[in-house]
Amino acid sequence: MSRRLSTGLLLAILSGAVPISLAVAAEPAALPEHARASRYGSGWECMSGFRQTSDACVQIAVPANAYMDSLGRGWRCDRGHLNTGTACVAVKVPENAYLDDSFGTGWRCNRGYREKAGACVAVEIPDNAYPVDSFYGSGWRCNRGFRAAGSTCLPIIVPAQGFLSRSGDDWECDRGYRREDSACTAVSLPANAHLDPSGERWECDEGFHSHGPQCVRDWTSASP
Q: In the chain, what percentage of residues exceed pLDDT 70?
């Protein structure tokens, strides 16, 4: 009897007499033209060369003298052109300048010239100096052995027991001497002392400590 009920129930379901809910997989939403399924999560994204606008993918308009960037999400101007937001205009390079895409104006003055009111004017270089490629400062630098003083370069007077610093615009004292005003004075070593690593001061030998201008023996190291 139970088998008869089961068979009858199955026939009723198949005939539609008994309603039943069946899970049906939802069909994916239709992708707009020039789109693809998103690589991250659900949804979709526009293909390279297109930009999403509302529910559509609109082709990116590349102006003259420009090219699509590597990501396909925008455009960049060719070398020698500046981006105005909607177009690429040619860079007007003044005399004594050259193209430079890394700079805001698209050009940079040659060495020995400085930008002034959209032009490149010559830098006045004093004696014993040379031009430098710099946007700030004087535009020149003194030769080694000279130091800047206003708009001139003055020679550096190196005292006895001294030498030019590595930068070349100052001087230092030899080891065992210290700088005092415009001279190098010898470091006076007391007994039981030696020069410290700087070479401008002294420190006591092992087993001694400083006491004023002298090095006295430590009590702990004294013989019984």
A: 83
Instruction: Tell me whether strands 171-173 and 208-211 are parallel, antiparallel or unpaired.
Output: unpaired
Residue 195 belongs to a domain: yes
Pick from 1, 61, 57, 70: which is nearest to 31 by CA? 57
CB count in 10 Å sphere of residue 220 = 6
- Asked whether the beta carbons of 162 and 156 are under 8 A apart, the reply is no
Residues 6+ apart with CB under 8 A from 131: 111, 112, 123, 125, 139, 140
Residue 34 C-beta-side C-alpha neighbours within 13 Å = 15
**Residue 67 to residue 90: CA distance in whole angstroms:** 15
Considering the chain, what is the average pLDDT of its residues? 84
Q: Which tens digits make up the pLDDT trace of 69-99?
A: 888 888 999 999 999 888 999 999 999 999 9
| 209 neighbors 218 (Cβ within 8 angstroms) | yes
What digits encode the pLDDT tens for the residues 100-154? 887 778 898 888 888 888 899 999 999 999 988 776 678 899 999 999 999 999 9
Residue 174 near residue 161, CB atoms below 8 Å: yes
Q: Number of structural domains, the chain?
A: 1
- Does residue 212 sit within a domain? yes
Is residue 39 within 8 Å of 48, Cβ to Cβ? no
Q: Which domain holds residue 200?
A: 187-224
